[in-house]
Specification:
CATH class of the largest domain: Alpha Beta
Strand content: 5-15%
Oligomer: single chain
Number of strands: 13
Helix content: 40-55%
Bound molecules: glutamic acid
Largest sheet: 5 strands, mixed
CATH architecture of the largest domain: 3-Layer(aba) Sandwich
Order of helices and strands: HHHHEEEHEHEHHEHEEEHHEEHEHEHHHH
Distance between the termini: 25 Å
Length: 447
């Protein structure tokens, strides 16, 4: 490994010893970009440290009152990770697992996703350790308002543009945007993305994360002389991303046969492929119960309590739930099942060891979420573009732009892998392509 990179890795290990998710993402990245570190300017400008660590980390307390009048205090964060190629941009996550390590890992990954889209956005992330499970609508609205009261002074269309992530969907974005407008007195559309269609949102935005992942897989298949027609997809999660995957996969002739939640997974041999099933996924999400067993009850399919879907055979595996949801045993199942494609929708879904195993297996073609998971933020950037021209593109126009963006990310990742003699290693390829782009912007802007 490059000497300068070794020193940076040692410093990161020491400084962030208590932040495992963040360290995992940043150390994996250093390994991936290692073949592309020949330029002496990287060390001269200490670019690796400046890319690996966030430019700014904001944390704040979020007080709120529940329906019984009892006060609670949550911890809110916004990490403004990198602004080399545009205003900070990234999601907000409301989940009890949110902490400084998780938001930093998300902000780091986001910087690379955003660079790969080819659109002018820097990287950020944020959220709070608020648990929406079992909360009433009014409680969630009050929480969103309090959260925005703390956050609004740090964001803006040309500063930092939040969007949704786990626990934050278009309903929450509406409440956050309403409070932002009240506090600033400005209809500043591009201060948030993922807005509803009636007040500045973009068509396709809600389904974009999942659509993008399927477009990426379609492009990989095309390169192998195959199509999605008749393919069986093994998918985890049942949230926004999985929902988009089910819809686009069905449209392109494939079948999503699994969904999962913290309670286990369901196996639907006919595929999650009808409007009724899509709607049920949305209802499950808003029920606040966070489980998929209800899908099995409703549609009469099998439910496997406490298990993950990676044991099910299929043509492609698409983890779409959360970080580290796939470990070494799961990777062994995937390889033993002769799964040919491993395409990450969620951020860093595999443990470092599981990812190593999948990448080294000659049978599995792998691609990481920085490339395959950036459909959501790509359409967020298109939403900002539409806000600034005060015009809305049609559904098919946005969908086609998304398809093209995902195709060009595939091309850039494959080209970078080829250029550095890495064969078909799209994970290293996408990290190198994004690294080159961000480093050029940082070099141009000086120290
Ligand atoms: N959290 C989303 C993502 O993974 C949304 C980011 C955005 O649209 O800004 O990309």
């Amino acid at each position: 490994m490059n000497e300068y990179a070794v020193r940076v890795a040692a410093n990161l290990r020491q400084r962030y010893a208590g932040e495992p998710e963040y360290l995992q993402s940043v150390l994996t990245w250093l390994e991936m970009i290692d073949p592309a570190l020949e330029d002496p300017r990287y060390e001269k400008l200490d670019l690796l440290t400046r890319m690996a660590e966030p430019e700014r980390m904001i944390s704040f307390l979020v007080p709120w009152v529940d329906d019984k009048g009892i006060a609670h205090t949550c911890h809110g964060y916004r990490v403004q990770f990198n602004s080399a190629i545009g205003p900070y941009k990234g999601g907000l996550r409301f989940h009890p697992s949110v902490n400084p390590s998780v938001v930093k890992f998300l902000g780091f990954e986001q910087t690379y996703k955003n660079a790969l889209t080819g659109l002018p956005i820097g990287g950020a992330s944020g959220g709070a350790d608020f648990d929406p499970r079992g909360k009433s609508r009014r409680e969630i609205m009050r929480f969103c308002q309090s959260f925005m009261t703390c956050l609004y002074r740090h964001i803006g269309a040309d500063t930092d543009v939040p969007a949704g992530d786990m626990g934050v969907a278009s309903r929450e974005i509406g409440w956050l945007y309403g409070q932002y407008k009240r506090l600033t007195g400005r209809a500043e559309s591009s201060a948030l993305t993922g807005k509803g269609l009636t007040y500045g949102g973009s068509r396709v935005r809600q389904a974009a994360a999942g659509f993008g992942t399927v477009y990426f897989l379609a492009r990989m298949l095309e390169d192998q002389g195959e199509t999605l027609e008749g393919k069986r997809l093994i998918v985890s999660g049942f949230g926004n991303m999985s929902w988009g995957v089910c819809r686009k996969a069905t449209e392109l002739g494939a079948k999503v046969v699994t969904l999962s939640g913290p309670d286990g997974y369901i196996y639907d041999p006919d595929g999650v492929s009808t409007p009724e099933k899509y709607q049920f996924m949305v209802d499950m999400r808003y029920s606040g119960e966070d489980r998929v067993s209800t899908y099995a009850e409703k549609f009469g399919v099998e439910f496997f309590p406490g298990k993950r879907p990676w044991e099910v055979p299929g043509d492609a595996v698409l983890p779409c739930a959360t970080q580290n949801e796939l470990d070494v045993d799961d990777a062994i199942h995937i390889i033993a099942n002769d799964v040919r494609y491993y395409v990450e929708g969620a951020n860093m879904p595999a443990t470092a060891e599981a990812l190593k195993l999948l990448r080294l297996s000659p049978k599995v073609l792998t691609v990481g979420s920085k490339a395959a998971g950036c459909g959501g933020v790509a359409v967020s950037a298109l939403e900002m573009a539409q806000n600034s021209i005060r015009y809305n593109w049609s559904r098919s126009e946005v969908d086609e732009k998304l398809r093209q963006i995902m195709g060009s990310i595939y091309d850039a990742s494959a080209a970078a892998a080829r250029e550095y003699g890495l064969g078909y290693d799209l994970i290293a390829g996408n990290d190198i392509a994004a690294f080159k782009k961000i480093s050029e912007a940082m070099i141009a802007q000086g120290l």
